[in-house]
From TrEMBL:
This is ABC transporter substrate-binding protein. It comes from Steroidobacter agaridevorans. The keyword Transcription regulation does not apply. The keyword Membrane does not apply. GO terms for biological process: transmembrane transport.
């Protein structure tokens, strides 16, 4: 009997040593960007490691080896539980998101960091009431840098000279903005932009400077128009499936949010700012893309053309029960305060 008891105790000790004190939760993340893209490499991937550290290993984010589908499907992947965690672009899902258009309006700031942090704060105060991320828990919201116009064999000295050009845009405000400027907006997945330009389907693209480098477009473009504050911005999300989130302990939820929210928005914004600066420096050094800024006359024409669409967008947001003008003013106030304090 003593021998049997000793054997049982030995087995229990072995099992105890092999079993973690806390059950580990694995959340699967689908990534659709190239693995070397700055947003993935410098923001999303480090965030997954921070989650593990913040939860003392109780929650692990598993990076899937390949995306589960196209970029536009990633919000639905999280909402429907196909993936546990996803990130993506709001305007890739037309009709689902309206309040988030606030961050996409033109001329807001040169800094993705300032806009992203201000956006998170204003979203929590004003925009969250629209409940547009249903089916998920919103972990972070942010933008890329100022969206600019890039073309091949097109005169950028006036908006009149650009009329009729076919320009690939991301959707959202950029779609309306392109129409306002007299160009023909073309929709295509970001992963297919090179083929669209190289094949002559489009004459140009609206992108932040970073994306010209990340998607190897230098060889199919020769000019860029750098509009102060950008012609548009793109609003992005990081979400987790609501059901999976609800099964986490309050302790782990709080730990995850401690490395998400405003902190992640700031990190993402800084990543875009660095990448934009590096891309522009590289372009100037290589000399293959001619960079120009609008004249005062051209800038006045751009503002005049876009203003009705800015008003239309604010009206769409207001229809969601949000005081869009107040939210816009708050966004600008936050951006100005962040700039004055150097981002803190």
């Amino acid at each position: 009997m003593k021998r049997v008891t000793a054997v049982l105790l030995f087995v229990i000790v072995l099992l105890s040593a092999a079993t973690p004190l806390h059950a580990q939760t694995v959340l699967r993340l689908s990534n659709w960007l190239p693995s070397q893209h700055p947003l993935f490499e410098q923001t999303i991937k480090p965030w997954t490691e921070q989650v593990t550290k913040a939860t003392d290993g109780r929650v692990v984010i598993q990076l899937l080896a390949a995306p589960l589908g196209p970029p536009a499907a990633h919000f639905d992947f999280a909402a429907n539980g196909v993936a546990d965690v996803t990130f993506g672009i709001h305007s890739y899902t037309p009709g689902r998101f309206t309040a988030t258009l606030l961050a996409e309006l033109p001329f807001q700031t040169e800094s993705a960091e300032y806009l992203s942090v201000a956006y998170w704060r204003v979203h929590q105060r004003y925009l969250a009431k629209a409940n547009e991320h249903r089916g998920t828990k919103l972990l972070a919201i942010f933008t890329h840098g100022p969206g600019q116009l890039w073309t091949r064999d097109r005169d950028l000295s006036s908006m009149q000279s650009l009329r009729g050009s076919k320009i690939r845009v991301a959707g959202g405000f950029a779609q309306d903005g392109a129409k306002a400027l007299g160009v023909i907006p073309i929709q295509a997945p970001v992963t297919e932009v090179y083929q669209v330009l190289a094949g002559g389907i489009a004459d140009g693209v609206e992108f932040p400077a970073e994306s010209i480098d990340s998607f190897n477009l230098t060889g199919v473009l020769d000019r860029g128009l750098l509009v102060p504050g950008g012609l548009y911005n793109v609003s992005m999300f990081l979400v987790v499936n609501a059901g999976r989130w609800s099964k986490l302990s309050k302790q782990d939820q709080d730990a995850i949010m401690s490395v998400s929210g405003e902190q992640l928005a700031r990190t993402a914004g800084r990543t875009w700012d660095r990448a934009d600066a590096d891309a522009l420096a590289s372009m100037r050094k290589a000399g293959k893309i001619e960079l120009a800024t609008p004249s005062e006359q051209q800038m006045a024409a751009i503002r005049k053309a876009l203003e009705p669409y800015v008003t239309k967008t604010l009206q769409q947001i207001s229809a969601k029960g949000i005081d869009a003008r107040a939210a816009q003013q708050e966004l600008q106030k936050e951006i100005a305060a962040l700039k004055a304090r150097g981002g803190s």
